[in-house]
Amino acid sequence: MQKEQGELSALTLPTSAEETSEGHRARTVGVGRAHAKAIVLGEHAVVYGAPAIALPVPQLSVTATAGWSANSPDDPGDVSLTMTGSASRPVATQASDGLRRLTAEFRAIMGVADDLHLDVVLDSAIPAGRGLGSSAACSRAVVFALADLFDREVTPSMAFDLVQTAENVVHGRASGVDALTVGASAPLLFQAGEAQELPIGCDGSFIIADSGDVGRTKDAVELLREGFRRRPGAQEEFVRRATELTEGARHALADGRPEELGARLTEYHELLREAGLSTDRIDAMVAAALAAGSLGAKITGGGMGGCMIALARTEQADDVTRRLHEAGAVQTWVVPLKGFADDER
Predict the structure, then answer these.
(1) Do 130 and 162 belong to one domain?
(2) Are residues 266 and 207 in the same domain?
(3) What's the CA gap between 146 and 164, in Å, rounded?
(4) Domain GHMP kinase C-terminal: where (predicted)?
(5) How far apart are CA 50 and CA 41, in angstroms?
(6) Looking at residue 340, what is its pLDDT?
(7) Residue after which a domain boundary falls, among 191, 226, 259
(8) Is 90 exceeded by the pLDDT of residue 145?
(9) Count: domains in the chain
(10) Residue 95 pLDDT
């Protein structure tokens, strides 16, 4: 990631371990936070240029704590990464390489000395491998923990680029939707690398349910691509239909038409299911949510495991949640739309 020449020239390498650049003094501890996200509509199609609607999930958060110490001469520029919390082991497996690349990029851009050893602790409640943006949230939390530690200002674009540095290591070419939404305070419409906050005219709640199965995003992506290769015109039809459903959902969300919004969710689930990206357990959870009175339900994220998402009226949320657990959900989280609408006012 490149930085403006004028900004770089204002930074100098530290003359001591305590002073990380001219005019900046490291604190003892830095703290950064981020949260989960869920895709409402648009997964898979978004990488082909279609729009996607992404939902912040503030109920699931990650906190990063960063410190530094003088490094040994034979261990320059090292970083120790410790994972705690309910998602510790899978997050460590997925994110460690990306976070090491991120910290190296942060050092280079911000002028942090190579002879400082960084100690980063991540406490995450976001289950990994479920399409909830765990790796992007961890990366964003680390960015702001390091910025707090070394008294640096991080612009939104800088934060995005740094998170993408880690995401591209973890996932290959990342679309950017996770990197944006794990720091967002409202639902976003994402397309072609650009994002905008969505107006909220609907009441009700999104209910996210974890199937307990780790999603296989890379396998899902390859399965979809193989289907496109076998059937001429299949990719164009998939993207056209996905765009149509996502745009319909966007307007229903803004205009206060929850029944239409829910219907678009269910139709998108059928689109992904027909492509082979759902599972028997996810399908059972979708059916249970609909039977309990949900306005719509679908798989969310890469597919072949992970989570599903349902839209329910406020008074039905408890019943839908109970039925989802009966159908095999191991965890559920309720995200009220009213909170986002209040934020806009």
Answers:
(1) yes
(2) yes
(3) 16
(4) 250-328
(5) 10
(6) 84
(7) 191
(8) yes
(9) 2
(10) 56
Reported as half-sphere exposure (CB side, CA atoms, 13 A), residue 262 has a value of 22
As a whole number of angstroms, the distance between CA 256 and CA 246 comes to: 15
What CATH code is carried by the domain that includes residue 258? 3.30.70.890
Last residue of a domain, one of 143, 172, 191: 191
Domain ranges, residue 144: 5-191
d(CA 55, CA 134): 14
Same-domain check for residues 152 and 26 = yes
Tokens of 125: 């409640």
Which pLDDT does position 72 carry in this prediction?
53
